[in-house]
Amino acid sequence: xxxxxxxxxxxxxxxxxxxxxxxxxxxxxxxxxxxxxxxxxxxxxxxxxxxxxxxxxxxxxxxxxxxxxxxxxxxxxxxxxxxxxxxxxxxxxxxxxxxxxxxxxxxxxxxxxxxxxxxxxxxxxxxxxxxxxxxxxxxxxxxxxxxxxxxxxxxxxxxxxxxxxxxxxxxxxxxxxxxxxxxxxxxxxxxxxxxxxxxxxxxxxxxxxxxxxxxxxxxxxxxxxxxxxxxxxxxxxxxxxxxxxxxxxxxxxxxxxxxxxxxxxxxxxxxxxxxxxxxxxxxxxxxxxxxxxxxxxxxxxxxxxxxxxxxxxxxxxxxxxxxxxxxxxxxxxxxxxxxxxxxxxxxxxxxxxxxxxxxxxx
Length: 362
Description:
Blueprint: E1 4-11, H1 15-28, E2 32-36, E3 39-44, E4 47-54, E5 57-64, H2 67-84, E6 95-96, E7 102-103, E8 107-119, E9 122-128, H3 133-137, E10 141-146, E11 158-159, E12 165-166, E13 175-185, E14 190-196, H4 203-210, E15 216-223, E16 232-237, H5 242-251, E17 257-264, E18 279-285, H6 296-302, E19 313-320, H7 321-335, E20 342-348
Parallel strand pairs: 16-17, 16-19, 17-18, 19-20
Antiparallel strand pairs: 1-5, 1-6, 2-3, 3-4, 4-5, 7-11, 8-9, 8-15, 9-14, 10-13, 10-15, 11-12, 13-14
C-alpha cells in the first residue's frame, strides 16, 4: 500500500523543547514514541510523525495511508506545535501530499432524512450524504459540525497551508462535537447518529431536539476506536459509549466471547442489541443518580473474571473522564494488559461546558 507523505520545516527559538512537547502529546494518546538526541518519532493508528531538531528550526514529516488520515495528522501536529511554541507565532507550510489550501479532504455535508426516539433519552437521526464509503471502513468516531440555528445556508471550514482549519466568522461558525457513527450504508448514502437527550442543553442536544428533514450538518472523520481481533472482549461505558458498544457488538465475529457492561439512567434506556451468543450484555442502572456521579462501570469492570484458557483478550471502554482514568489504570497496573490489549477513552468530563464526548452527548 502506498504511503502519503507531507513535510515542513518551522523556524523556532527552541526546537528541541517543542519536539519534546509534541512527543509527550503523542505518548498521552498511547502512541509508540521513540526519541534519540535531536530526533524523534511517534506511531499511532497507522500514522507516523517524525521530527528533527535543527539549528533554529524543527523539521516534521507526516506519513499516513490516505488523505483523511494525513490531514488529521497534519492538523494535530500544527495545533500542538502552536501550543508548544509559547510566545511565538511560527509559520507552518506543508509540502508534499495534500499541500495547499482548500476544502477539508475528510469533510462531508449531511442532510436529515428521518428522526426517531430509540429510548426516551436516545434520539436516532438518519442523514443522507454522498461518498460515505470511508465511514464504513474507518474508525467509530466523527466530528459533527452544527451550524448556528437560523443562519440559512451553512458555512463550513476550509483548510490553510498549515493544515489547520479556517473557520467562518463568529456567529456563523458551527459548533463542533464528537459522536459515534451508529450505522452507515454507503450504497444507500445513509448514516445514523444517536444523540443522548440530556438536561444541559449542549449544541448536540439542541440540534437533535429541533432537527427536521432537510436540516444540514457537517462531519469530519472518521477516526479512532478500532477494535482488533481477539477471542474474548470486555466492553464498558455509559450511555455516551452505547452507540459505539452497539456497533462493536454487531461487528464482532460470531464466535467472540466476553461481556459488555453498559451504564444507563434507568431500565427505560436499555436497548435490544445484536451480539454474538458468547457475548453477555449487562445493564448498570443509575436509577436517579446523575451521570458521572457513580462508580457503577468501574466497580463492574473490577469484578469481571478474565479467561484463564489462554484466550486473546481485548478491553474497550468509553466513559466520563474520571472513570476512564480509573479503568485504564486498572487494566494496565492490576490486570497487566499491554497497550495492544486495551483502549480506554474519556468521552466526556463532568462539570465542563462541552460535556458531550465521543459518544452521544452534546
